[in-house]
Each structure stands twice: as C-alpha cells, then as structure tokens.
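Co-fold these.
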Amino acid sequence: MHSSAMKVKTRKLPPCHNSLATALLVDAYQITMAYAYWKNGTHARIAAFDLLFRKNPFNGEFTVFAGLEECLRFISNFRFTGADIAFLRSEPFARTMDPAFFEFLAQLDCSSLKVFAQMEGGVVFPRVPLMRIEGPLLVAQLIETPLLTLVNYASLVATNAARHRLIAGEGATLLEFGLRRAQGADGGVSASRYAYLGGFDGTSNLEAGRQFGIPCKGTHAHSFVQAHIGFEDIADSTLNLPDGGLCPDFIKLVKEQAESLLEVVDMLPGSLRWAETNHSELAAFASYALAFPASFLALVDTYDVLKSGIPNFLAVALALRICGYQPLGIRIDSGDLSYLSLQAREILTTVEAVLGAERAGGFTNLSITASNDINEEVLHSLNQHGHSITAFGIGTHLVTCLRQPALGCVYKLVEIDGAPRIKLSEDVQKITIPGRKEAYRLYLKNGEPVVDVMLRIDEPQPREGERILCRHPFISSKRAYVQPAHVQRLHNLVWDGSTQGVCIGVDLSLMASRLRCMQTINSLRADHLRYINPTPYKVSVSEKLYDFIHKLWLEEAPVGEIV
Amino acid sequence: MHSSAMKVKTRKLPPCHNSLATALLVDAYQITMAYAYWKNGTHARIAAFDLLFRKNPFNGEFTVFAGLEECLRFISNFRFTGADIAFLRSEPFARTMDPAFFEFLAQLDCSSLKVFAQMEGGVVFPRVPLMRIEGPLLVAQLIETPLLTLVNYASLVATNAARHRLIAGEGATLLEFGLRRAQGADGGVSASRYAYLGGFDGTSNLEAGRQFGIPCKGTHAHSFVQAHIGFEDIADSTLNLPDGGLCPDFIKLVKEQAESLLEVVDMLPGSLRWAETNHSELAAFASYALAFPASFLALVDTYDVLKSGIPNFLAVALALRICGYQPLGIRIDSGDLSYLSLQAREILTTVEAVLGAERAGGFTNLSITASNDINEEVLHSLNQHGHSITAFGIGTHLVTCLRQPALGCVYKLVEIDGAPRIKLSEDVQKITIPGRKEAYRLYLKNGEPVVDVMLRIDEPQPREGERILCRHPFISSKRAYVQPAHVQRLHNLVWDGSTQGVCIGVDLSLMASRLRCMQTINSLRADHLRYINPTPYKVSVSEKLYDFIHKLWLEEAPVGEIV
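Predicted complex below.
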C-alpha cells in the first residue's frame, strides 16, 4: 500500500519553465465543455481520466515516461488570472455565457484533484495509464490539453534519446546539438532536458544548461575556420603555460611542428600523403588553441579531413604538448564517418608510435566526435561497418524525432461518480479500459520484469509468490499464469490537492529521473530493446477486469444487423 | 533603391513571445568562438552572414518565410543579463577565460548590426538568403542559433499550412487543432501562429488566440458525450429564446422531435434506417445546446455517426429551430470521411426537403467539420473521391510537420572585412554563394514572377524592360535571358542597429504577413504549386556573380591527385 501511505508535502511547486504554459494553454473546447458542465450542474461529479498511449514510438517496444514534473508544476500553479478571464470573456463563444461562470472560473484551482502517476524516467507500456487524474469533472477535463502537451513530446524525446543510447553503447559520449532545428525555442529546451533524461551526456544549449544543470558542450563551427585568413589574424601569440611560465610565440611553435610532421609523413598509414594543408585552417586552429589551450578540440572537415584538417590539428596539438597542455581531440561533421574515424584513429596511433610518448603521448586515445545527420540507423550502420568514434553530436533527428515526430498520448474518461465509462471504437486498439485501475509490474526471480497487469481498483494487490492469471485485455485466448518473485505498484499518488502538495518520497529531479530511466531500461530483457524486430513486452489485465471490460463492451456495443 | 531610402523608426520592439528566447538560447560554441575572436582581436571585423535553406520542404517547390518579427524582437532585446553572465562564468569552458571577456559581453547588444531580409509571409526559394546579417564578427556570429531556431520551424509550419490551404481550396475552413501533439508548449503556440500566417482560419489554442489575435474555435470532445448518462443529468431544462421568450422544457421538445423523426425515417437515403439511438448521446447534445443554443455544433461519432450521432443531432437541431435558433453543424472525427460526409449531406438535404423550410430551413448547408489524422494526402484523396466537408480540423500532421519535421536553414559566413568567403563541399548543393549579394524577383508582363536572380552587391539593379542573363549558379549550360516587365528588390533593411530601429514601411504584423503569403502564393504559376511533381521555380545569379563564384571556387578547391 505504499502509495496511500506516502506522506504529502505541503508546498507549492515553482511555475512551469515555459511562460506560455498558462491556464489558457488549452483547446477552446475545454472551456466550452466546462461551461456546459457548469450550466447543466454536472461539473462537480467526480471523474477519473486516464492519460495513456496506445503504441510505442519508433517501431520499438518500450517508451520512457517524461514530463511529470512539469505537469505537477502546471497543476500546482493552475489558476485563471484576471487577464485570462478578460480574454475568455472577449471571445465570440463567450457572448451567450452566463457571467457567473467566469466568477466560478476565477476561483478555480487544482485543490480538489488527486493525481496518480507512474514515475518520471520509468519505462512504460501501451494502455497502462501514465497518469490517472481524479476529481471534479470540470477541472479534471480542463487540464487535459496542457497535460498532453507536457507529456507527449517529453516522453517522445526521452524515448528517442534512450534508443540512441542503447544503440551507441554505454561507452559513447552522446551530445544533443539540435537547438537550431528544434520546433520552437521550447522544443529545443525541452529536447535538451529530456534527451539528458533519456541518457545523453550533454547539450550544446546553454539555456537548457542553465535551467536544468545539464553539462554544456561545444567547440567551434566551420565559420570560425572561414573567418580566419592567415596567421596575421592572431594579434597576440603568447601563451600562458599551466606551470606559470610563458610561451612567447606559440605560432612559431605551431609552424615548426607542421614542418616536423612532413618528415614523418611517409610513415603514416595508407594513402595519406599530405604536403600542403590549408593555411587559414591552421591559423584558425592555432587561434582556437590560444583561447582554449586546456581543451583544444578542432573541427577538421572545413576543407579536407585527411589532407588538411588532421595534419593541421596535429601541428597545433604537438605544439600544445610542448607547452604542457594535452589536446582533447577532433570533430568530423561530414563525409564517411566510419572510414574517416578509422583513418583518423590510425593516424593518431601511428603518430604516437612514431613520435613517442614525450611528444605525442595519449594521442592514440584522443576523442573523435562525429556529427552530421546522425540517427539510430546511422549508429546501427557504424556498428556494422566499424568506426573509432568516441562521441556523437546528434541534432535534427533527435530533437524533432524525425522518425516519428509525435507520440499519440490521449486522455480518456474512465469513470464518473463511480460508474465506469468505456469508449468504443471500430479499432479494438482504441477501446479504453473502463473504471479506475491499479497497475502492477511483476518480476521474475532473476529481477526481470515479465508483465504489467492492471486490476480493478478494489482488487487486492497481487502477492509475491502467488500465481495470478494475466489476460490480454481483448484477445481471450492470450492468457498466462504468472508467479511473481516481486510485485511493484506502478501508480503513486503524486499530487494531493487537498493539501496542495506533492508526495514526499517521489524524487522528481532530473538527475533522479535520468538514473531511473537507465536502471529500468537495463532491467528489461534485451529482446524488448533490440533495434530490429524487438519482442513486445506483455501488458495484461486481471481475470476480474477482463470480465468487467467485456461485460460493459457487450452492453454498449449495438448488435449489427445485415439486411 | 527602396531599401536604403526607407526611414528607420527608433523604437525598441517588445520581447520575444517565449521567455526562453534569452541571450543564452545559443549553442555553447557560439560563446567559445566569441571568446576566441575576442582573444585574437578579430571580433570587430565586419562580417556578413547569409541565413538560407537549400531545399524546399515536403517535396514541394516553394517555401513561406516566417519568423522575422520574432527574430527582430530577439535582436532588439539582445543583452546578456547579470544572471546570464554569472551562469556563463560558472561553466567549465569559462575556467580558463579572461574575466575581461565577460565585462565585454555584458556591454554587448545589436546596435552595431544591420539586418536585411525578405518579407515575412513572402514566398522564398532555395539559396536566396532569407536574411543577411552585417556587423562585427563576434555579435553577428553570436545570434546564429536563436535566429535559426526562430526561423526554421516558423517557416516550416507556415509552408505546411499554405500547402494544406492549396489542396483544401479557398472555400474550406481550416482549423489548427494540434496543441496536444505539438513539440512543447512553444511548438504548439508557434504552430498556431504560423499556421494562421500560412492561410488557416483559426486555432483551438486559446493562448495563441490571446497572443496573436487568431480566431479560436472548438466545441466538445467524446468525453463530454461519455460524461452524460441520460436526461437526468440536466439540472435545468429551460432555454431562453433569442426573442426574449422562454422555452420551459427544452428536453421535452427534443424528445418530441426525436419521435417525429422516426416518422420520416423511410424517406431518408440509402440504407439509413435508425430506430433507437444512444440516449446518453442525445442527452449530451441537448445539454450542449442548452449551453450554446446559438452555436450548436455536435461531435457525432462517439457511438455511430449514421445510426446514432446524426439522428440525435437532428432531434436537437429541430428543437433549436422551434426555439428560434439555427444550428451550426456536425463534426466527424473517425471513419471514412468521404462516405460519411456525403451521407450526412444527403440526410441533411433530404430532411430539409421532407420537413420543409419552416422546420428545417438551411439544414442542407449546415457545416460538416472533419478531423482525425488529416494531412495533405488525405485532402488529396478526399478531392479525388468526393466529399461534402466544409471545415477541416488538422492537428498532428500540421504542427509536427510529420512529413518533414525540420527545415534545414543554415547561417553561413559570406564576407569578412570586404573579403568574400566561400564554403566548399563535396556536395555541390552545399556550396555557399560568396560575398554580399542583392536579390531581385523578375516578373513577366502578366504579373507572374519568373526567376529570382542574385547579383553582387555593387552591381546595378536589373532594369525593367532590359534583358539580363540569368545563370544557374553551378551548371554553366543552364542560362537564359530575361526581359522583366517588373523588378522587385527582395531584401529590405529591417534592422538598423545604429538607431536601434526597425524600418518604417515594413509591416511586421501577423495579419499583414498572412495577406502577403496568400498574395504571393497566388501570384505564382500553378505548376510550381501543384501537389504532385511540381515544376521548380528558377533561382539564378548574374553573369558577374557566376564568374566570381567560379573564380573563388577554383582558387579554394585543391586539385585532386590520383596515384
């Protein structure tokens, strides 16, 4: 009974991160429906709504739930301001409305609601509600659109990020670089936040870094290289050394190292025979190293990765070594990332071997960051063909979720004044599971979750070690007995309006959700997670709930007649 | 010379609509590059950047430019606050930075910039810059990410909306219903704004309605129907009449009309033979009509459109007529929209014919709104198969731009201290056109635009009636003489930082941009606009610019060597 036993903290959460998340961030019909409920006197009936999705995104078999903290901020601060009311009254649909309704609206908040939810960052599956909202029909209905808006994209990006993490492997550094291609400022900031939740290591987005404490990463763009013409661009060539000393002419050092590299060029692998590299690029790298000697990472593909970028990088990197600094590595933003990264690694390794540890120690293990339209498929292909990339910068595909840019979360009425409601559809997948439900995740002895099962709200919790029949909600033949070694209740009371509070014991911080995401994904059987043809995870209902669904279904569905 | 002759208004624009559009809404590398420029003393060099895209979205041959007003708000208010600076100083990359840099940053604004741009709402084409930013390298580079973020999605959605308008036809009402599936709160609000710009008639999103004055539309959801059990749900059945009278029992009237409909059911078209409709649905419709007697529009597909939704709608609609109100129509959110809308129209027409103008006048022309996963393809298919829909509610496909969720706008350095810069690429499409350029749209006598041509900045403007050779920028054989009847300069000075002002004569309002969008689209030749295999609109360069590009290209590109 851990959810009801949880203590409630009496505190107001801060407002949403986006100032656009007002009480008016709703579809107009939420207001017209609210008025109709108020007018016919049904507004205070106690309703229960399920927020759920019906299909995992990206042809996958799991979803990461995200957006809960933002939803609770919204709920905690939900109020129509004077300006909101004034706007509503000015709308054409308000012309015939009773003015007393707006007085009623002005008093409204979420103090009469209870919200139960799965945990942010947890792995979730179709049909098991992510959230259940209980309370007066009018207010529970009014918050439909903002909750969907705050959950849909958050969960989609977090899932997308987690999928990229799975395919890139735990060792890779994953950086979100998508702000410029995001769907609006908030699309970018939300993407950074939820990509981090889903397992990314950092972002390029400084605003997101500030708001959520996400590590920020970045070096320079092609335009930085293009903006340099030659060494004459560098006003000051002195470099402070880490030991307190001074290199009086770093550029001279870079030129000497460039010369010295020509002597070993024959020892370098394959067809790499450079003679003259692009001088403005060399000047740009030297300039960047003067600005960031302790974190030198160069974008090497402005002209030609192998003929110009890498030798120029090496010249500057060797000069930095002499000054007592260790370079970080290179970034490649175009071309055949498999081939170029393998070649780059071979050059770095050979240079260290040929020049020795004194001059080029650690070059073998320098970082190679790759960017340029990377997605799951590219990562999969790189894994197949081999590569030597240590970090990926992922933009458009990650933040716009190009493979599937929307998650279809819906918000369905399942009970009103204790009476269950079912929404029928020609499409069986779209039939809602009526009534309030508890959901449990059942685990095997080895710690693997094996099935999620929903029970009617008043059924006793499944017990560890006892067999329970788990049934497919719609297909009568699909059923199995499960004897769980461990039973986890999935829905926690996360908002109890009567105390204006959020539950103690529910850590809503981004770091906690990020950890939860990694842990729950790692607890899943590998075949649910694989890139190609993953196995569906089972979602089921108890025998009682099964019978209940099918009884209501038959009652509601008209018998067809063929004439 | 209209752009330079334009007067400049000295006023600060209001801040961006989204509070997340701060000076920190940048990729981290903008800051590290800024530092390196500042450190090597090149930060004050005068740079020119082009903001452009390379390929029209959605397999189309045109794009609508949007986001300019928001960019100018950003530029006008661009400043690092004390809190911004404090955050930057706390970042790991700042550890080795000279503190004087942050004092420099704290003083920075866009007063040293000039911005030239095409008009918001105008139709634009690949490679012709949407904006050119001129000014000190450091600050012109710093605003790259926010400008891209504010233009990319805005232009994508506006283009998507314009495409939906083209295929739906001018007579259809188009409503944006996408907030719940949008990529964040801002994704939703921006979508509403730019869908309206692109030719939509309204939105469901009240916050967007408030911010931008867009008409808001909406009725009720399935949950409203489900929330009703029967007539006992309706506390008050009296209805005030438009003439000041009172209907003492509207429900009684509805029941009578439902009975009376059974008498004419044999005269209704095809296989439509209803006997018993869903009573809770009838109660819900009556309840909604009591709340909105003057704007009754019912969602008729909760149970069965033809067997239950439409007869229930008719009962309530006939009762409203008796009370002196005219119903608006129905909404269908599932099923075969072609078939259902045609059947619905036939029923409405027959009912008016059978019951007469007194009881059912105007029913023939009631509105039929369709929603449910509508996109360009569905609209195309509805056109092919026939339908009787008057309004479309379009959500997910419109707001997430599901067919192509990102527009690839880029921001490229083209000149520094008067020296042109070219960015080469293996992919010819990605080669930038160097130097500052003017662009003109050339029109034929019949008013059709025929080609956009870019000239070097110091070339004289093409003259009406004089032949000009327009060349493909990269393919030497593609060239044509054009003798324009009318010449339009495409870039206006929209921001002159020296006076902190926006140009007078540039109407940046949403309504003006919306009108401009419709007008410029309508001026294009139809074959550029068609859904399948549209003809590309020509984008060209002058002879001088052509020679200039190819001279620089040869200078910069290394000669390959095959050994």
